[in-house]
């Protein structure tokens, strides 16, 4: 199993040197988030994830969760680790002080989330889902609901879920059937079956707070007739304690490709007592409030997977001796050279490295936008941040998880046949990461959100704030010779992006299927270009540091060299995607469904 | 679990209409391989794989092989299925009549191999390895060895293995340590440990014949000091029967990402009795004789995986109702449209279909070249066939397995979250297929074989026979308007290929690392172009049939439309690879090994 080391130096580079989090936090009034505090928290998170969370990753996969008569047991060590997680105050980090939170910035929590995900994808999902539940109640719940559920969710003694999917509907939630009938006391009785409920049942916490979408009889059909409910596993007594069992049960858990240590549950509601959150029939709107944040969380999993796989592959590539370098023996005293001398091994490692580090920068940038959206008092700044976030979130989610999956496949490949063997831990990363391309909206759902809803839906207006930022950066560096290898491609690919967007828009007016036909290639192009921008920005910071003089020359040189690799060996892929978009959807729509196979 | 149906119509299209196997077999003197016989065998193989082999695929994955005190038990049903396989005479199909074979063409066996692989990757590996062992003994063994081992291997009552890898050496076999010491009776005593031995121990057959590479003390170091041995699990008595146990044992089996129903063994040789095959120190040469055939077998697994995943995804896409088509409701009576109406679902399905069908054509073509290499009496024809085979085998192996893996990932994606659940069988295809990118030489090993050893090593001569064939095809269709959408891109991409090859050659003269840096992108470009040629050929056949008039209009239309999809939506990817090759290896080699991480 690869030993996980939190990439502290790189996180600091991104947060402090690239994105000046100190200034960002002070401006937003996060007085507690001083540089020292940020450093201390990241160091502690590094220690905790390296020493407590990572060591139960492989055993957790091997053992998996077990279901017996409705009870789910998590793998050995998970309960204890979760206890330590709660005792360490980790769940409270970015939570509201009113409910026992530490009130630190969301972006600091995001940085730490990556460490948890790299160390143990399955474990990291438990708190991730609680966060979704508490955020929903905080934003839309009544005062009573907040007082009943928030403190325990914030503390972590209770955990949460999001119950959306049903057997016949995942993407298309308008088709849901779970019904909620009003009781005399103002509560509701929920009846129906939800599937794919991550952390739906387990032995980590004293109570589980399900956030459930359901239909109140008589509501409009489709997505406009969906309401949102809190359904606790155990009812709450009048004094707020855990009371008797609610009519919620776990019918079974799924056997999956990966994330085996996270229980994916069938949850049956058999007249379970639930409490309406927000207004009747506005349930999906309440859910969508948090879609960006949840999707950003999944995007982080892509980065986390690339990083974890990179670490494993790098250690192996330095250690494993096999064949001699084509350009001459590098390890004359050994029977062969370390495989890191071979160009293609480096190609795979640098692909992982450039996606992990580039993706980390993108995520950290987006997390700062979330901070601004949360607390900025400047409406203009807030609007710009939210517009950028709306544009870039689907790109980050789909692009970084698809590339994360590719990176874990490279990790297996660097190990050769050994990569296929469970013992080494590399194949688990590939199995665990595939889910990130599926949940919180599949890759094509992100692509349609980007192209149809956001870009074409806003007639391109959504592009402006981020587009202006990129243009400004290019203009600022127009006279910097050392930056031209990065600036020129961004301008060229960026120009093509604009033309491509216009063309797709025109085609879509005639035939809306052209949007779907273009969507994923369009998103991937956007992803390669977006990451190019962040790599150029990082190269700029590194070049400036090198020009100023630094005792970390190798670190900054590596940044510039990795940026160069990205531009020379990764960005060119965007061209193929552009040609696919250009070629349109006719060849995809030409076949009758019955003529796909004979 | 997706129900497997052998793609009989398409196999016939490829074998008969595209590659005129009737004429091919008659010319080579395969009198028994009449069209009727070919049809009958394929139909029987379809029935057998659909009814006997496919049904134990998922259960085999779930149960896996078990190891107890050196004995390996295959999953339920494998032993019975293998028995039926032997009783049906399947192992004997393309084997030499002198040893009990049916003497049918290799290419017919290859067509059938795809069915076995699609139905059950793990099962198909058992006979695959026996075939490697018998082919080695037939080509290099003594008359006594042939009489002792061939009849049982051909019949299938004994199975075989290839024992190459050791813990410290996989790709770099020159480092192997297993030693073979000469005994007084002319036999050898083998001592050492081999790993990753597929089918190294199991309960399917009466004996297991290991083909082992080892070093005779005093031999030259490296790959020139390797000899080849037969080491049976049970010694053979004087009258050829199974005798006492040899000192060969299975130390453990691996826990793997996939192919769980095939035992991947650690095999210990503790002074085991072995028999030299061929000459001392010529072991690797003997092994390499069969490298092309073995690699072609793995390439077939890529096609088989794409096909199996396509079938599962297609059935689901027609059945699963979710969302409405962007271009208008298609299923007004249902609550939503079948997801096959959505362009991106079609993009994924057509990617799978175009890789499966295009790959099938490439494999069938290569298998005919193997036929020619085996039995043609025309030296010129034989030489051309072997040259084409040498060029195209690494392309087929690496490109079709990488694309096969991609196709299985699309298969999971079409299912959404359900694709991640084991029950549906889609994720197993992805897990099983990853091994094909690793064994028999990883993707980069194929790429180096193609670019370094074969193309640059022959100063481009190896390109001529296949290059001439493609040029001839383009010229023949230069005046056919309907073919220009296919011919023009082949000429354009082909021209760029030539220039790219020359440039890489020039760069490599100055810096050999440029070969490794270009290799995988070069191979992928070659793969996309090669498949484009086969799609153009298939489109031509289909267009001719449509022009002549046919009662299978939909089938031939689908061929033309799928060809169009391939050219418009898959082939463009080659451009990104070309740019990566063009950009060279400097950015990959610039980082010191210690500077990859800080």
Automatic annotation (TrEMBL), chains A, B:
Record SUPFAM superfamilies: Acyl-CoA dehydrogenase C-terminal domain-like, Acyl-CoA dehydrogenase NM domain-like
Domain of life according to the entry: Bacteria
EC number: 1.3.99.41
Entry's transmembrane regions: none
Alphabetical keyword list: FAD, Flavoprotein, Oxidoreductase
Domain Acetyl-CoA dehydrogenase-like C-terminal per the UniProt entry, residue ranges: 468-592
Domain Acyl-CoA dehydrogenase/oxidase N-terminal positions: 40-156
Cofactor(s) it depends on: FAD
Location of the Acyl-CoA dehydrogenase/oxidase C-terminal domain: 281-452
Molecular function as annotated in GO: flavin adenine dinucleotide binding; oxidoreductase activity, acting on the CH-CH group of donors
Catalytic activity, reaction form: 3-(methylsulfanyl)propanoyl-CoA + oxidized [electron-transfer flavoprotein] + H(+) = 3-(methylsulfanyl)acryloyl-CoA + reduced [electron-transfer flavoprotein]
Coiled coil: none
Its biological purpose: Involved in the assimilation of dimethylsulphoniopropionate (DMSP), an important compound in the fixation of carbon in marine phytoplankton, by mediating the conversion of 3-(methylthio)propanoyl-CoA (MMPA-CoA) to 3-(methylthio)acryloyl-CoA (MTA-CoA).
Family under the similarity heading: Belongs to the acyl-CoA dehydrogenase family.
Protein name stated in the entry: 3-methylmercaptopropionyl-CoA dehydrogenase
